[in-house]
From TrEMBL:
Keyword NAD: yes
Keywords carried by this UniProt record: Amino-acid biosynthesis, NAD, Oxidoreductase, Serine biosynthesis
Leader peptide range in chain numbering: none
Full-protein residues shown: 1 to 306 of 528
This enzyme's EC code(s): 1.1.1.95
Domain (D-isomer specific 2-hydroxyacid dehydrogenase catalytic): residue spans on this chain: 4-306
Naturally occurring in which organism (per UniProt): Belnapia arida
Name this protein carries in UniProt: D-3-phosphoglycerate dehydrogenase
Family statement drawn from the similarity comment of this UniProt entry: Belongs to the D-isomer specific 2-hydroxyacid dehydrogenase family.
Amino acid sequence: MPRVLISDKLSPAAIEIFKRRGIEVDFRPGLSPAELRAIIAPYDGLAVRSATKVTRELLDAAPGLKVVGRAGIGVDNVDVTSATARGVVVMNTPYGNAITTAEHAIAMIFALARQIPEASASTKAGKWEKNRFMGVELFGKTLGLIGCGNIGSIVADRAVGLHMKVVAYDPFLSEKRAVEIGVEKVELNELLERADIVTLHTPLTEQTRNILSRQNIARLKRGVRIVNCARGGLVDEQALAEALQSGHVAGAALDVFETEPATDSPLFALENVVCTPHLGAATAEAQENVALQVADQMADYLLTGA
Ligand code: MLT
């Protein structure tokens, strides 16, 4: 009977699936790297979210490991090169939290357009500052999508429903697909020059790192708003802070940061910045989806493919 270790907080649905499929499963979230290395040897599969770092050292301590399953999209916490070199398959769940993450991006766009977090804090403080919070409508505005894959295309769909004009930069987006989802495919420079709001939906790769660099932020329209629910490292945070202070960027909403957990940042002190602690995938529905999907995929592999 194959054995799987779940080392992060995964929905109990995953445990049920493994058991039902005849796989022995242990649920041990919160172990230190040393503790994990000490117990990993007998397992065939390791199921993680983002807290466990699947390093070369951990893989060295796991000679029987056949599969690492990431309940979520990004595999940034897995050393995929080292895993592949050892014949360990790395799998993710690319669809399970796409709607939830797209909805978070839309929520961030609304939060920025109407300054909801600041207005809420002010009202709760008893100030009733009705004249302070003048917002902007989304109707008719141009949304610039950097990345138009699983998540970006759902954001596009919702934005079209809000009667926004959507332009997308994504080298993998075909003209046909762009037409199907109601977006205009553009080059990055055109997007930077046209967007009223820019939202990022791309993984962090050598090509996308710092895609909103100081230079590219300077190319954006004055008064632009920026949303990042994808990955820290896509935006130059220091340059963004300066552009917010100068008023070139009117607001930014960030769910992800270059260093996480982000407990200190030049952005935190700025009034026109909304921050959440990497909550993009944090809904009950998405966590259930990714847990079910990762457990089924890992079970399929361990029972038939490994
Ligand atoms: C993902 O890659 O699935 C999201 O960023 C969510 C997460 O890391 O928990």
